[in-house]
Amino acid sequence: MSTRHDALIQIQSLIKTHHFSQADISALFEASAPDEQRGGNLLQRVMIYSGAAFIFMGLCVYIGMSWDKFDALSRVIISLGSGFVAFILGLFCLGDQRFTKAATPLFLIAAALQPVGLFVFMDEYLPHTGNIAKAACVVFGFMTIQQAVAFIATNRTSLLFFTLFFFYAFLSVLLNWLEIDAPDGPMVIGLTALMVSWGISRTEHKLIAPFYYFCASALTAAASFDFLKETPFDVLLIGISVGLIYLATIAASRSVLTVGVISLMAFLGYFTDEYFKNIVDWPIALIILGFIMIGISVFAVKLSKKIAKQAV
To answer: Could you give the number of structural domains in the chain?
Structure first.
């Protein structure tokens, strides 16, 4: 009995020393579980997500079929009320280990229904100003605060994902409202999202980093093209792509690598079309471009394998 107690004390000491989180310990238990138990957990997760999908689709179909029959209050309750209830149920699920896996599908339903419900509420009860951007700022700002507070309280990765999603939706609408249009707006969002993704990839919530890495690098590449195309400095586009590929290596991100390689090929195609298509040697330029792209693809595959080793 004393040996078991001493072992628990050592485990507790290790957890405090290395700052292990509950998610780390849960992942360790899942990895060391028997194959039968892991298969059961996988089946349970599939059933939970499938059930959540059926619930969400059922709500959408019911709302669509009966929308015209509802009065203003009923429309708000069926949209905003359902989303808020799903959000509260998700928080309650986090308090019971048996229902933890059901929390993420509930948060997903809440993230889909609550913004719609807020728009419905403003449409039904507030004066119509015609300023859609202002209304969207209010909705996405509220959702950002709600999800951020819930994340701080629970440290749940899915809530961090939705916090960032609604924050960048808010930022995009705000920049549009302030008449900061493309390419300035997308460039601001892309660069800030790259920095945020870098920070997330260094935490226990790194599972969501690839999605934001991909979106941020794609926005950065597209905004750079809008900035530099048909200017004397368009050669810098190659540097943007190379910079993304370099970032992919130090961040060990295949998402950024994918965008970097695709943007490099696209920029090379732009240069070829812009400066060489009227030259007699145009077919030769196309052949050379083809070989360059093949070489880039081979390099990308090798780099992807290197990134995979770094991730491990």
So the answer is: 3
